[in-house]
Amino acid sequence: MTLQSDLAAEVAAAANAVAGRVKEIRQDIHAHPELRYQEHRTAAICAEELRSLGIEVREGVGQTGVVGVLRGKAGSDRTVGFRAEMDALPTQDLCGHPWQSTIPGVGHHCGHDGHVAALLGTAKVLAGMRDRLEGNIKFLFEPAEEATPDDEIPGSIAMINDGALDDPRPDAIFACHFYPEWPAGSIALKSGSSFSGNDYFELTVKGKESHSAVPWKGVDAIVVAAQVISALQSFTARQLDIEEATSLTVGTIKGGRASNILADSVEMTGTVRISSEKIRNDLPALIERTIKGVCESLGAEYDLNYFSRHLPAVICTPAEVDLVRSASIEVLGREQVIEMRHPRLAADTVHEWLDRVPGVFFMVGTAGDSTDTHYPSHHQRFNIADETWPAVVAAQSMSAIRYLQQARSE
Questions:
Q1: CA atoms of 115 and 366, how far apart (whole Å)
Q2: Structural domain boundaries, residue 101
Q3: Does 237 reside within a domain?
Q4: Beta-ladder partners of 85
Q5: How many domains does the structure of the chain reveal?
Q6: Would the pLDDT of 2 be above 60?
Q7: Same domain as 216, residue 303
């Protein structure tokens, strides 16, 4: 066990004291989920909670975003920011608890309700210590993080365009994401890429239509497409370094016009995720080589549109990772802080913040004894163990305090 300093013990005690309120807020938001750019009720909760703590609040940032500023000691101009997302998913909630979603077809299955509640708990802890803060804390409550349509921008960009990084500008930004892959109350992090981001592709396989009675007169695009999919799966398993985490998914496929006609074309879309940025640079050419080989061998043609860095990787800066690691160990103990070997094969708009400001995107474990806390992210029964709340609040609070202290001493 790590022996806590007096400050760490104070922060841990304060985090435990607010855990009940954090849980209440999370359950309230879970019961009233809101989709992208519709987070009016959630934003109002954030603004009200922050104002009750004497924190400066700006609403309507990037449409429905909220920004709060907690001023520390007079004359301290260093600022650290924290970001949490507010939007829910367009999926039916089946959690089965009293706080199950009251909105048909909308549910918090990615943990955003917990991210918001935990950050509000962190605000309460830090507000109680404002006279000792060696700088300012900026709270960024982001709308519209999930799945941005082509005709919209994500909430992160909307907020940044609306001045969320101004007055004061954060010197670092920290953010977290909840996952049941780790025990509740643990913190997992790594330098460099913590989320892989994803590439996106559109592929049309072009064959030649023919009646099924004379298949030799045509080129069946469905058969070719099936071979392409198999080849792509073999490609990831046999041509990429086994030490790298990789995912290639063909998510949609459409083709054919009748059961007795060879399809003249098949359209597919998919995503590619990989832990190595170096290999990622080579992927478009490697994937096209595989597709081209299959199509040419079967007499088909193809059109491939490969969108590299559809969502870029989330990059965590080493100095800030070291600080969050150390602060988390102080309040939680070394055994609760986990070193991630690879980034998660996921994407997040937090990259927009961290592309502009150094920082950390760390993972928070949510799996407790109850089996309902073991469902994966985006599952309709996704839930969060109670042990999560004091741990994440303590880790965030201590990270803020230590970051500002370190900056003051430099």
A1: 12
A2: 6-196+312-409
A3: yes
A4: 142
A5: 2
A6: no
A7: yes
CB 108 within 8 A of CB 89: yes
Residue 49 domain-assigned (yes or no): yes
Amino acid at 173: I
Strand pairing report for 261-262 and 265-274:
unpaired
Which of 29, 45, 9, 188 has its CA nearest to residue 99?
A: 29
Residues 137 and 69: beta-carbon distance below 8 Å: yes
DSSP 336: G
Cis amide prior to 168 (ω within 30 degrees): yes
Q: Which residues have C-beta within 8 Å of that of residue 190, sequence separation ≥ 6?
A: 316, 321, 339, 340, 341, 343
Residue 1 confidence (pLDDT): 46
Place of tokens 């913040």: 353
Distance between CA atoms of residues 76 and 243, nearest Å:
45
Question: pLDDT at position 74, please?
Answer: 75
pLDDT at 410: 58
How far apart, in whole angstroms, are the C-alpha atoms of residue 349 and residue 330?
29
Q: Mean pLDDT throughout 79-94?
A: 98
Tokens representing residue 382 in the block: 């996704």
**pLDDT at position 365 over 90:** yes
Q: Which of 311, 328, 344 is the last residue before a domain boundary? A: 311
Q: Enter the tokens of residue 327.
A: 């602060």
Give, in degrees to the nearest 5, the angle at Cα 77 between 71 and 81.
Answer: 65
Residue type, 120: L
Rounded to whole angstroms, what are the CA distances from 94 to 100, 200, 380?
7, 30, 5
Q: Which two tokens stand for residue 297?
A: 């061998």
pLDDT in the model for residue 151: 87
247 with 318, same domain: the answer is no
| CA dist., res. 308 & res. 363, Å (int) | 25
- Residue 1 lies inside a defined structural domain of this protein: no
Phi, psi of 143 (to 5 degrees): -85, 170
Place of tokens 């004379």: 214
Which residue, of 293, 311, 329, is where some domain finishes? Answer: 311
Q: pTM for the full model?
A: 0.90
Q: Does the structure show a pLDDT above 80 at 43? A: yes
Whether 192 and 213 share a structural domain? no
The predicted structure's pLDDT at residue 310: 78
Q: Within 13 Å of residue 256, how many CA atoms lie on the same side as its CB?
A: 15
Rounded-to-integer distance, Cα 106 and Cα 33, Å? 6
